[in-house]
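Note to self: keep these together.
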Amino acid sequence: MPFKPLKIGKYTIEIPIIQGGMGVGVSWDQLAGTVSKEGGLGVISAVGTGVYKNRAYIDKVAGDNRPLETVNFYSAKALHAIFENARKICGDKPLAANVLYAINDYKRVVIDACKAGANIIITGAGLPLTMPECTKDFPDVALVPIVSTAKALHILCKRWMKTHNRLPDAVIVEGPLSGGHQGFKYEECFLHENQLEAILPPVVEEAKRWGDFPVIAAGGIWDHDDIVRMMELGASGVQMGTRFIGTVECDASQAFKDTIIAAKEEDIQLFKSPVGYPARGVRTNLHKMIEEHTAPKVACISNCVAPCHKGEEAKIVGYCIADRLSDAYEGDLEKGLFFTGAIGYKLKEIITVKELMRKLVEGEDK
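Structure:
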C-alpha cells in the first residue's frame, strides 16, 4: 500500500507520519525540525520549555535552579527559540506544536506557539473544547485534537460548531499503549474495547458524519506493517512517539535514550500521576524511592498542570511530575521519570531520523 500525503488544513504532509510531541525536551528543535525536513510532521512539545538548557530565556528560578511558576516553566521566549532553531533545519515545511489541555495557562501557551510559527496545534490530555477560541486570531493555524473515543469526538465537534462554527482539521485517536498520559483510567487501559484497533473505526465513522476530516491513529504503532494495518482500518496517517526516541536527533539526553533501550517489556508499566490519569513509562529508581518514601519532597515550584492543584495531587502520588520529567531530560537516572510507549522495549539501536523514515515507508528489511 503506497502512503498518500496527509492534508491537515492548508498544509500537506508528504509522508503521513506525525512524530508525537514528547516533553520535557524529548521533542524540541532537533527532532521536530528533522522529521519535518524528512517529509513527516515534526512536533515540538510546549511542555517545560523553561528547563535547564533554556535557562537564559526565563526570568525567575527557585529551588534547585528550577523555573518558578507557570510563566517560566512554559517560557514563551524559549519556545520561540526552539521554533527558530527548528526552522533552520526544516525551512518552511509544516511544523506543529503539542500543547496539553491540562496545563496551566493553556490559552497563553497556544498563542505563544502560534506566534512562534506553529502551523498546526495538537492538543490532548483533556478534551480541548476551547481550542478554537485560543487560535481565533490565527486563521491559518490548523487544529488537531486528540481523542480516545468516538463519543468524545462527537461532543467536541458539536461544541466547536456551536461556539465557533468550526471543525477539527484532523483528529488523532490514541489507544492505551502510548507513552505518557493515557485517555483512560487504569483498568480501562486493558479492556479489549479500548484498544486502538477497536476505537479507530468508530472515530473514522464519526469524522465522516462531520465532513470526513483526516483521522490519525496513535498508540503502539511500531513499523511499516503497523502503519499499513491502521490505514486499512480507515486512518489517513499515524502518530508515533516512542520510535523517534531511538534517533540521533532526539533532543533527550543519551542517558534517557539508553534507559529506554535497556528496558525490558516488564519494566514498562502504568503509574499513578498527579494529572489524575495513569501514565506509562519505565520503572526506575524513582519508583523504588516513591515506594520507600524517600523520593524528593514535593515543593510545586513550577505549578505546571491544573489537575495537580498546585502540588496537592503530587504529594498523594509521591512525586512532582515537572521536576522528575525535567530530571529525565537531563539524564538523571536516580530521580528521572522516563516516559515511553508499551513497545519501548523494542528499541535496540539509535539511528537517524532519515533512516527511520525510510524503514517506516519501505519496511524494515528493504
